[in-house]
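Extended Data, record SH3 domain-containing protein
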Amino acid sequence: MWIPTEEEKIGVVICNFRSSVCQTLVLEIGETVQIMEKTEGWYRGFSTKKPSIKQGIFPASYVHLKKSTVSNRGVCEMVVPLEDPIITETTSTLQEWGVLWKQLYVKHKVDLFHKLRHVPQSCVMNDASCAC
């Protein structure tokens, strides 16, 4: 039996998820999901990156829950994650780098791929001196 979530409203995907069942939501690592309902070990929700795609179900264990504030509870609720702006910016930057790395790898630009792999790590470790 599905019940509306009270506390579990938003999370970050920690493991890719694909299934042949038509009601599931395809998830990719790093994606943010808004959670609407829950049942034993499963959530129903949608990707905040692709809100136009229908909602679907996914394993609760594939999502790391984040604290959030909720206004207008119900059908038109607005969920806002509670995060430090530095964390938000760092996450966004690393996600952009992930897309770029994937493009380099797919295009077989292995030398450039390997040369650039240390840049995001040094940005995170030395964020004050980073020119990202």
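Summary. The helical segments are 85-106, 110-116, 119-125.
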